[in-house]
């Protein structure tokens, strides 16, 4: 794909995704992924992480989805792409690792067949050469006995191996951009972290630009350059990974960090320890969507949606009370930081 080298790998502006005319799953998201960088998307279940990732490849169900805003991949306008151009984009320039590996892998073909098929869909190479590449990929993602495992069916592999096979499948056509949704399946925490570290390694080696979803803030700091915290379809805080974790300015981010510090959030588990629940996306309240659960909310927060505040260069938070939030965090910073970094 040719584009000026200065164009970010992915640039999303004011993305909105509405399902069935009522569910505002994504509400004005901006994300910039610079080439060769990794951005982590963090947030509770239902905050719109997967919907955002899928929008980049236009994979949301066509008929009931209204999508608005701007999405550019390596300078190309994804919103304006024909079905044919989208097909070329998917799996080639942009590859995705799905949250449900068993849904992404076809149960009736061996993993090796699926990888060689994916390669031959996009490139004119022989079956033998495609299999050689599949084998090299299996070695690269460190699947033991790669030759034998190529001939395994997805259900014959463990969850961790399946996840590695999915990474191999995603890398089969040498993509520039990798979108990785954290698996929900019962992979244990250490396996998940190994997979994230593998992704980080591959990213550096292959010069990939990556957006990945994770529920683990500690892992995000290790593998991402930037962190974007999502809440109810919006990015509430975004900045360099260290700034967001060590110097948060949004009460929601602080809540996530605190719940982790309390030990309530073991490494790798889902983020759900802040009391209360996110708003109904079909019936958004006015004001800040986090206000009903916020320890700092005041009257204005329930009435008027907060604008982004640039709290540091390259670090922004959508909150009326960034100063108070930051001060509250400073007060117990040591304990929280120790638990995360
Ligand atoms: N095809 C769809 N039709 C209707 N609503 C949808 C559809 N896909 C997602 N949603 C809704 O959009 C919201 C965001 O969903 P999304 O899958 O992006 O959450 P998530 O942040 O990935 O959560 P998780 O951490 O559980 O994977 C949810 O309320 C979900 O129910
Ligand atoms: Mg998801």
From TrEMBL:
Pfam families recorded: ABC_tran, oligo_HPY
Domain of life: Bacteria
GO molecular function, one term: ATP binding
InterPro entries: AAA+_ATPase, ABC_Ni/Peptide_Import, ABC_transporter-like_ATP-bd, ABC_transporter-like_CS, Oligopep_ABC_C, P-loop_NTPase
Keyword terms of this UniProt record: ATP-binding, Cell membrane, Membrane, Nucleotide-binding, Transport
Similarity remark: Belongs to the ABC transporter superfamily.
Name the record gives this protein: Peptide/nickel transport system ATP-binding protein
């Amino acid at each position: 794909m040719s584009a000026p080298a200065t164009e970010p790998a992915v640039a999303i502006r004011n993305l909105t995704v509405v399902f069935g005319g009522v569910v505002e799953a994504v509400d004005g998201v901006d994300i910039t992924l610079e080439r060769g960088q990794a951005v982590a998307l963090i947030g509770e279940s239902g905050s719109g992480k997967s919907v955002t990732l899928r929008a980049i490849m236009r994979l949301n169900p066509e008929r009931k989805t209204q999508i608005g805003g701007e999405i550019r991949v390596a300078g190309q306008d994804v919103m304006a792409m024909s079905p044919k151009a989208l097909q070329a984009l998917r799996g080639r320039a942009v590859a995705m690792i799905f949250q449900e590996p068993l849904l992404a892998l076809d149960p009736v073909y061996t993993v090796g067949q699926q990888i060689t098929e994916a390669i031959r869909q996009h490139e004119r190479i022989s079956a033998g050469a495609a299999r050689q590449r599949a084998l090299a990929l299996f070695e690269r993602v460190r699947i033991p006995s790669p030759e034998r495992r190529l001939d395994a069916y997805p259900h014959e592999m463990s969850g961790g191996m399946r996840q590695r096979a999915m990474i191999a499948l995603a890398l089969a056509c040498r993509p520039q951009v990798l979108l990785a949704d954290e698996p929900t399946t019962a992979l244990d925490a250490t396996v998940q972290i190994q997979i994230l570290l593998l992704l980080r390694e591959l990213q550096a080696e292959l010069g990939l630009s990556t957006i990945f979803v994770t529920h683990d803030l500690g892992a995000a700091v290790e593998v991402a350059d930037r962190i974007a915290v999502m809440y109810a379809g919006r990015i509430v805080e975004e900045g360099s990974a260290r700034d967001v974790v060590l110097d948060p300015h949004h009460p929601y981010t602080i809540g996530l960090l605190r719940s982790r510090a309390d030990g309530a959030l073991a490494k790798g588990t889902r983020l759900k320890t802040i009391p209360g629940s996110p708003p109904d996306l079909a019936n958004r309240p006015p004001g800040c969507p986090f206000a009903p659960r916020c320890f700092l909310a005041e009257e204005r927060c329930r009435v008027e949606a907060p604008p982004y505040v640039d709290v540091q260069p390259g670090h922004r938070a959508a909150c009326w009370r960034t100063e108070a939030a930051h001060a509250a965090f400073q007060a117990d910073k040591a304990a929280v930081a120790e638990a995360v970094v």
